[in-house]
């Protein structure tokens, strides 16, 4: 997992430095079994389909798959890795698609789609693709400092 | 459908409290698993001097704080319905009983009004914002349900809101046991082709 952190990971992008149309560097998340289980447990989600392959199959899924809370977490991380630690997330809105199964890779891509200078916020559209198609499509609204 | 419509705008299941207050150990577990090294969540010296004025929790951890985890569900407080003859089943139970036993989450929208800090004790309530009529989808026939979660801190201040949309559907081959407990974060078992 190669972080997309800016050279100084304590630095935060300023609102004027960001333009609509700017693309975020892609982030590849290798979906190991450990990652899918550890993120489910870290979010306190003990549903068996997120850690027990036999029960997941019994319920009609080919394998365990990532839970929604973790998808949210990766989308949030992707945007703050790029924006910096003093960016303030206001909204994370996601639509779910193809499940994240172990052994696959999810690649996150993002693009700045709006900038509101009065509200001091930007909107980043995010898409996370895996081998099956779009796992997640969404948008994140975040506040950035003036300078 | 009338019964379902009667549930729109009504709370379901009372108030859910958090098993543990917001705390740094759970924040670190989450950040380790997600691979998030954001200094505002992890580095006290940086966070103290930052716009946050101290360590904050990743806002996307919101749902984790009120998940029951492995603890038995505590009876929630303030359930609707005092009339013993009233049908007090939740929308999920009504749909289960009608054969729409499978569930797939399709959308999750979170809005954060302030970041949570260690020590915060969060509660949430859920109300049904909308229930669609019966729809035919690629997964099977079902109803789309939108739940509105309101998250409050110990002072009753609204700290976040979440809209959670899911499809409760009748599985085409109804031989698989249904996933349990949608209210614990939801599943995305199948591709959303609805």
How would you summarize the topology of this molecule?
The complex is a heterodimer of chains A (147) and B (194).
Chain A: E1 23-30, H1 33-42, H2 53-58, H3 68-83, E2 88-96, E3 105-116, E4 121-130, E5 133-143
Antiparallel strand pairs in A: 1-3, 2-5, 3-4, 4-5
Chain B: H1 2-5, E1 11-17, H2 24-34, H3 39-42, H4 44-49, H5 91-97, E2 102-112, E3 123-131, E4 135-136, E5 141-152, E6 158-169
Antiparallel strand pairs in B: 1-3, 2-6, 3-5, 4-5, 5-6
Describe this structure in words.
The complex is a heterodimer of chains A (147) and B (194). Chain A has a domain at 15-32 and 67-143: Roll (Thiol Ester Dehydrase, Chain A). Chain A has helices at 33-42, 53-58, 68-83, and strands at 23-30, 88-96, 105-116, 121-130, 133-143. In chain A, β3 (105-116) and β4 form a beta hairpin. Chain A is an alpha+beta fold. Chain A is built from 3 helices and 5 strands. By secondary structure, chain B is α+β, with helices and mostly antiparallel strands. Chain B folds into 2 domains: 2-20 and 65-172, Thiol Ester Dehydrase, Chain A; 23-56, no CATH class. Helices cover 16% and strands 27% of the residues of chain B. Chain B has helices at 2-5, 24-34, 39-42, 44-49, 91-97, and strands at 11-17, 102-112, 123-131, 135-136, 141-152, 158-169. In chain B, β5 and β6 form a beta hairpin. The longest helix of chain B is centred in the N-terminal third of the chain and has 11 residues, at 24-34. Chains A and B meet through α1, α3 and β2 of A and α2 and β2 of B.
In short:
The complex is a heterodimer of chains A (147) and B (194). With 147 residues, chain A is α+β, with helices and mostly antiparallel strands. Helix content of chain A is 22%, strand content 34%.
């Amino acid at each position: 997992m190669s972080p997309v952190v800016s050279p100084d990971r304590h630095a935060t992008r300023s609102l004027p430095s960001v333009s609509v149309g700017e693309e975020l560097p892609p982030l590849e998340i290798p979906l190991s079994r450990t990652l899918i289980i550890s993120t489910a447990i870290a979010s306190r989600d003990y549903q068996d389909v997120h850690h027990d392959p036999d029960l997941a199959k019994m319920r009609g899924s080919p394998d365990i798959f990532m839970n929604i809370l973790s998808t949210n977490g990766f989308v949030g991380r992707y945007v703050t890795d790029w924006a910096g630690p003093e960016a303030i997330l206001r909204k994370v809105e996601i639509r779910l698609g193809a499940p994240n199964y172990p052994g696959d890779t999810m690649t996150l891509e993002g693009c700045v789609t709006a900038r509101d200078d009065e509200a001091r916020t930007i909107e980043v559209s995010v898409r996370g693709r895996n081998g099956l198609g779009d796992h997640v499509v969404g948008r994140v609204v975040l506040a950035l400092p003036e300078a | 459908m009338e019964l379902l419509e009667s549930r729109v705008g009504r709370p379901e299941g009372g108030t859910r409290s958090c098993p543990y207050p917001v705390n740094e150990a759970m924040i670190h577990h989450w950040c380790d698993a997600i691979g998030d090294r954001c200094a505002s969540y992890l580095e006290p010296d940086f966070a103290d001097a930052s716009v946050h004025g101290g360590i904050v929790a990743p806002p996307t951890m919101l749902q984790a704080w009120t998940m029951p985890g492995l603890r038995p569900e505590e009876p929630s407080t303030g359930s609707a319905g005092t009339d013993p003859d009233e049908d007090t089943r939740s929308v999920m139970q009504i749909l289960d009983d009608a054969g729409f036993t499978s569930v797939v989450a399709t959308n999750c929208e979170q809005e954060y009004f302030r970041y949570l800090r260690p020590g915060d004790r969060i509660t949430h309530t859920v109300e049904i914002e909308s229930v669609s009529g019966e729809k035919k989808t690629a997964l099977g026939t079902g109803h789309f349900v939108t739940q509105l979660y309101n998250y409050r801190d110990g002072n009753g201040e609204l700290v976040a809101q979440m809209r959670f949309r899911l499809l409760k559907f009748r599985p085409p081959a109804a031989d698989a046991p249904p996933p349990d407990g949608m209210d614990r974060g939801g599943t995305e078992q199948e591709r959303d082709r609805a």
